[in-house]
Amino acid sequence: MIGSTATAPPTGETLHALLRRYENAGSPLSCEPVAEGLLNRGYRLATTRGRFFLKLYVDSATADRTVIARQHRATQRLDELGLPVAPPLPDADGGTVTVLGGRCFALYPWVDGRHRDGAELTTGQSRRLGALLGLVHTRLEQVQPPQPPPAEGRPGHASADPRRTFELIDELLDQVRGHRPRETFDELAEHRLLERRALLERHAHRRPPDAREAMTGWVHGDFHPLNLLYREDEPVAIIDWDRLGVQPRAEEAVRAAAIFFVQPSGTLDLAKTAAYARAYRQAADAPPDELAAAVHRVWWERLNDFWMLRWRYQRRDRRADPLFPASSALAVWWTGAYDAVMDAFTD
Description:
By secondary structure, the chain is α+β, with helices and mostly antiparallel strands. The chain has helices at residues 12-19, 65-80, 123-143, 162-177, 184-203, 249-260, 270-284, 288-304, 307-313, 324-336, 338-346; strands at 28-33, 41-47, 50-57, 98-100, 103-109, 216-219, 228-231, 234-238, 245-248. Helices cover 44% and strands 14% of the residues.
């Protein structure tokens, strides 16, 4: 586990203490880290009674016991409604969060499956993916607390301010140019930063307004290929609900498509995107204008977003480096193909 967020795996003493809280969980035999994941830590846990997924919550934004329990209740309710989720196992007292040594743990059944990106999905499977996310949004609306009415004068979800982005670009350029030894990644990072600054200078007038409260709803918060497990052709588990919250729901649909269907060259597979988007709109009862606003806001977000470079140069964490080439190229391509992308999501 690379970078400053790395955390030591649980010790044998911790595993024994944890498993004693569960009926029929057995004794630990092995505990191996799962490679995927950028926030919290996951382990493949083998015991004398079977295989489990052990989650260790370390990210400061998601490691609160109350927040974790709320996520668990949501997945339990979604499971009861028949969605492909894997809720945590209750301990002998019915709880799902265990605190040991100041750290929060949860135990899940092990789900056999694999991740599939958009290149592996047929058009029909892309359509089913969009329908699944639409169903997640509508079912979350059923099982989660209703949103409070918007307060008078309360701003919506704000869009990125390009003035702050220009400051960040200058800061990152200094860090990239000062990195030694100079690497190929540094060359690409500098090129993309300069390119993005020029794009923002040309398109700053297109900054979208704040998202309206009417467009928000409960969302998974991190719907992408590493958080969806397939068995053969069908999804069997949506995992990692750490970012469950109230956000503009159509924006989650657009962000997910931009991850699932981005190609190594940094373009989107527009045919699969269109099939996915039509199914999402139907399942979520989302009108085209809601998708249109989301497309514009996510495009703008991409132009202003440099989280992968911030991880590398400011946090000294390189785990996101492999994602950068295609992701950074997508923002540029999307700007040139703006109308075609908009049509794919709204027609």
